[in-house]
Amino acid sequence: MNLGLMMMKTLIPALLALCLQVPAQADIRQDLSRLYPEQSQDTLSKRIARVKSAPVFFRSFTPYFHYRLSNGLFQTSPWNQVRNQIGWCLGDPHPENFGTLLSEKGQAFYGPNDIDDAHPCPQAADILRFLTGWNLWVGEGATEELLATYMKARKSSQSFPIPPTIALLLRESEIRGRLPRLKWYHPNLHILRRRSDVIAVPSPFDREVAQAAIQILKGKGQVIQVAERVRLDGGSGGVKRFLVLVNYADNPLLLEFKEIVRPATFPWGIPLWDPFLRIKTAWDWEQKSTKTPFHETTSLFGRPFHTRPLWEGEMDFDLDQLTGLQKREVAHFQASLLGALHRNSPIRVGGNIDLIPAAVWSKAVSALAQEMTRAYDELRGPIERYSGRTDAQ
């Protein structure tokens, strides 16, 4: 009897939690299904299973953040006053979407390294995405300082000095150089590595990918190997990618073909640009100094793709490995880059974000970070959290 009572005391709270939690969990899954209609339920479930923290949820499902903004915060004052302040946006300027990129001559630059979500949107949403990301990674307290750095860069053409932490990364980037990314390339065998996330491409699709690579290289390269890269984590989880290893000018070159899908900002309802024009505009706006002849747009299987070289010297930070001072340096430099990019937006109309006080920005960022944390908790469900507590005991 005592054993039965103990089991009841253990099971009842878990069952009650499950009953209370299922509707919220189901609602978020339904929202994600609507936001990713091109992905199967199996793919989406696998992506959700890989999410292990609130920052990872925030990074993995960017459209959900914009969906919540457009249908929540931006329906209220004063944010509804800047909803129509439209400019070119990164779309997903979270802390880990910045890194080093190499020019064709091997010179390293630090800046945004992901163009997939670039598109016109309310620039206030871009700023909130950036600030919320840093809030989730480092906690409260930095929002108003980072906002001040952003505003200074937005209003002034004066360049910000490169901090020591980023200078070291740039130096390491140039040392590593333009060798194909060693994560996928075996330098001794001159082939792609055997990995669970690199799979063969069936015929005749492999020939179509190879032919597209030859066209981009203007017939000057020889295709060595074609493979599909399978990725389920991150903001591009589930997006079609191919790796093409070629011999170009007697040197190995690794190209990635990545499908162009809707930008994460689509919940704002702004008419979508032609995918090829959008990507080319993003390259010119974000990465003009590092755009190479290997950056191209093409069609595969009737769908739009863009290409880029995968070089060992293109790097970003593992934020968990940085000290507090290093994180501060990186965060402020990123804020200055975002401000400069918004200042030089190809389009900018309506609204005035200067009308929103710093304290209001800070309050909104805290609320958004809490909302993303709650969404993660609800998505993962009560059983997993209850099991975790039981294991700990």
Q: In a few lines, what is going on in this structure?
A:
The chain is built from 12 helices and 13 strands.
Structural write-up:
This protein has 393 residues and is of the alpha+beta class. The protein folds into two domains: 49-174 and 324-378, no CATH class; 177-309, no CATH class. It is 46% helix and 17% strand. It is built from twelve helices and 13 strands. The chain has helices at residues 2-35, 41-49, 54-60, 62-71, 123-138, 143-155, 164-176, 205-216, 275-286, 324-343, 358-380, 382-392; strands spanning 86-89, 98-102, 108-112, 119-122, 185-186, 191-192, 198-200, 221-229, 241-248, 251-259, 296-300, 303-309, 348-349. The chain has a six-stranded antiparallel beta sheet, with helices on both faces. The longest helix has 34 residues, at 2-35.
Domain count? 2
Based on CA atoms alone, the radius of gyration comes out at 23 Å
- What share of residues is helical? 40-55%
Query: Could you tell me the number of beta strands?
Result: 13
Question: Element order, helices and strands?
Answer: HHHHEEEEHHHEEEHEEEHEEHEHH
| Distance between the first and last residues' Cα | 23 Å
Main sheet summary: 6 strands, antiparallel
> Biggest sheet, strands in spatial order?
7-8-9-10-12-11
What structural category arises from helix and sheet content?
A: alpha+beta
